Amino acid sequence: MMSAEPGATRDFVEEGRKLFAGYCDFMWAASKIDGLPPMGPPEIAFAGRSNVGKSSLLNALTNRKSLARTSHTPGRTQELNFFALGAEPPNERLRMIDMPGYGYAAVAKSKVEAWNKLMRSYLRGRSSLKRVYVLVDGRHGVKDVDREMFKLLDSCAVSYQIILTKLDEVKKSEREPRIAQVLADLAKHPAAYPHVIFTSSQTGEGIPELRASIVEMLAQMGL
Ligand code: GTP
Ligand code: MG
């Protein structure tokens, strides 16, 4: 990623570090579709099963301890939580959305329906949404509920990418096979970006790569 000739290629690791070290703050929570903030800067969203580590990843990316609320209780994040990055709203460079988790068995049916409605309407009508990062627990790999999420994203024609979490709890020998397994699963999903990043919010491994990949994606889109 580093350029041999200074200035020849962009140093996305450094650009990513800078962006995520700058301004960041919570800006908006939406539990209903008519409660979304007006569209503005590019948005990236973090989805995944309850307890997979979405809120923790947002904190690790921004190097804040408690920007997003994390919890041992699955189902903690119930709304779409918007965070402004780069500058204070309305001049933010990027918005990050912490999504409510899915696949938590003890959730009432009415809540599952509310989740589906909120997710669908957000994913369908949001042209400022540039990519959804679907977090998959690195200890377990892709589950059927994740495949349901991939299908939902396929049907909403949203670009998405998989991030494996909790790398610190996965043996070294199991890491490459886990990535290969995810890529094999994704082969059936052409809307999925075929590059997997393995992260740990606890040790910070993979975090600079993820920041770099986000700024590189924005650059590729001319944003
Ligand atoms: P919901 O909001 O309920 O959907 O959960 P979430 O996906 O936001 O998960 P959250 O970040 O709250 O983390 C859930 C649990 O996983 C917490 O106990 C975290 O400490 C733990 N956790 C998150 N990331 C990591 C990681 O990289 N390594 C380890 N070992 N634990 C992690
Ligand atoms: Mg959460």
Spatial strand sequence of the major β-sheet: 1-3-4-2-5-6-7
Question: What's the total count of β strands?
Answer: 7
User: How would a crystallographer describe the biggest sheet?
Assistant: 7 strands, mixed
The hetero molecules present are: guanosine-5'-triphosphate, magnesium ion
Form type: globular
Distance between the termini: 20 Å
User: DSSP strand (E) fraction?
Assistant: 15-25%
Percent helix, as a range, is 25-40%
Contiguous uncertain segments of 5+ residues: none
**Average pLDDT over all residues:** 91
Count, helices: 6
Give the helices and strands as they follow along the chain.
Answer: HEEHEEHEHEHEH
Gyration radius from CA atoms, angstroms: 17 Å
Please state the structural category. Answer: alpha/beta
Characterise the protein shown here.
- By secondary structure, the chain is of the alpha/beta class.
- 35% of the residues lie in helices and 21% in strands.
- It has helices at residues 12-21, 54-62, 109-124, 144-156, 172-186, 207-220; strands at 24-30, 43-48, 80-85, 94-98, 129-137, 160-165, 192-198.
- It has a seven-stranded mixed sheet, with helices on both faces.
- α1 (12-21) packs across α6.
- Residues 48, 50-56, 70-72, 74-77, 101, 165-166, 168-169, 200-202 line the site of guanosine-5'-triphosphate (GTP).
- Guanosine-5'-triphosphate binds at residues 48, 50-56, 70-72, 74-77, 101, 165-166, 168-169, 200-202.
